[in-house]
Amino acid sequence: MHLSENEGIEGKTFVVTGGLGFVGSALCLELIRRGAKQVRSFDLRESSPWSHILKHKGVNCIQGDVSRKEDVERALRGAECVFHLAAFGMSGKEMLQFGRVDEININGTCHVIDACLDLGIKRLVYCSTYNVVFGGQKIINGNESLPYIPIDSHVDPYGRSKSIAEQLVLKNNARPLKNDAGNCLYTCAIRPAAIYGPGEDRHLPRIITMARLGLILFRIGDETVKSDWVFVDNLVLALILASMGLLDDNNEKGKRPIAAGQAYFICDGSPVNSFEFLQPLLKSLDYELPKPSLSVEHALVLGRICQGVYTILYPWLNQRWLPQPFILPSEVHKVGVTHYFSYLKARGEIGYVPMVIPREGMDSTITYWKQRKRQILDGPTIYAWLFCVIGMTSLFGGAFLPDTIWIVSLLRGICLFVFGSIWMTRLVFLLATAAHVIEGSYAWYLAKKVDPANATGWFWQTFALGYFSLRFLLKRARE
């Protein structure tokens, strides 16, 4: 395919569903840069970290739910090309909300297809996933000839729903548009690898938070396991090239566009062990990956236990107080089983070649996270929290609570054994409390100079943890 850089973009109107997301916002900005007449971001959220820059660049941000047909029609009316990126259930607690996953990923996709046909939109690019053909089996340099895995074989609702949605999109390729005789809807699907880049908001924040808290206890699988990653700019390029591959202006009469009805694997082209890939990022933030490794079989047992616990907690999955699960079965497969694919079909048909190499992509990601770390409240691992909270609570219980409860009697016995008397136990507790108050006050005073936005947070964290927290603030002050 030989087209100009902005073929099919200049002077055209585009809609990006999920346009306030990480990839969606980058795509909107690139379409604006390439001269699109109008770009609409259609998203359930009112705002996101990218809202301000999108509006500043002239992107029309439309709030709506892709699972509501009237919202979809309102957003797509008058568009000439749609990028369907909106999805739900990719990771964490979202993966367990089966009903919402199907509502967004399947029903929402049906609404987008119907709106394209009803409103005379000729191009639809669908952002799919590797998981339509991967369900935990080993795949080396796979290509688009691989069959969809059976629907019942998917280990999570996200992969199953995306598989159904992709097949719906591709089966509707070349369907005649309503009230537009002679023209058709042309569709294609992009299957990206794990996405990374500055501002990625699904996988990396969760991984980094777990590393900071000391909750990444082991690697999964052996060091020979490899999988694909794709930098956000490379994925955006692939999406735009796919939209160009759906143009019918330069095709012979009666011949379909080259990308019509096709699916393409998109990656950086450098399969790597995920733990090795993430190590430079975590090391730059002063976090370490563990050396012990857990087999896939044992990790799956742990994943199923986590899944069972969170299934019981289903009514509270949307509550902020409920943390993300430690790991789920499909996530075990993603990091513990070799699966990587070739982008040769995308290169041959739509001209995709990664513009950003992994080293450059990771360098920019590291720079972003180092800057972000300086702006947020840093702190110790969860073990320091447990030590301080349990320690001070136990000291208070042994010193002041009546021993009518067996646990208080046990605590008091331990305190008497360590400190010799009740009055000494009480004195130690009061001195420890005073020390925490002094350390917290000093942390607030120091934070007002070096991190004023988080001064209150530094006070309460240091009040709870004492020097375990204060040392992180002192390090930031030295820097």
TrEMBL record:
Domain 3-beta hydroxysteroid dehydrogenase/isomerase positions: 15-292
InterPro entries: 3Beta_OHSteriod_DH/Estase (IPR002225), Lipid_A_modif_metabolic_enz (IPR050177), NAD(P)-bd_dom_sf (IPR036291), TMEM254 (IPR028110)
GO molecular function terms noted in the UniProt entry: oxidoreductase activity, acting on the CH-OH group of donors, NAD or NADP as acceptor
Keyword NAD attached: yes
Keywords of the record: Membrane, NAD, Oxidoreductase, Transmembrane, Transmembrane helix
A biological process from GO: steroid biosynthetic process
Bilayer-crossing regions: 12-32, 382-401, 458-474
Family assignment from sequence similarity: Belongs to the 3-beta-HSD family.
UniProt-listed PANTHER family: BIFUNCTIONAL POLYMYXIN RESISTANCE PROTEIN ARNA, SHORT CHAIN DEHYDROGENASE_REDUCTASE FAMILY 42E, MEMBER 2
Name recorded for this polypeptide: 3-beta hydroxysteroid dehydrogenase/isomerase domain-containing protein
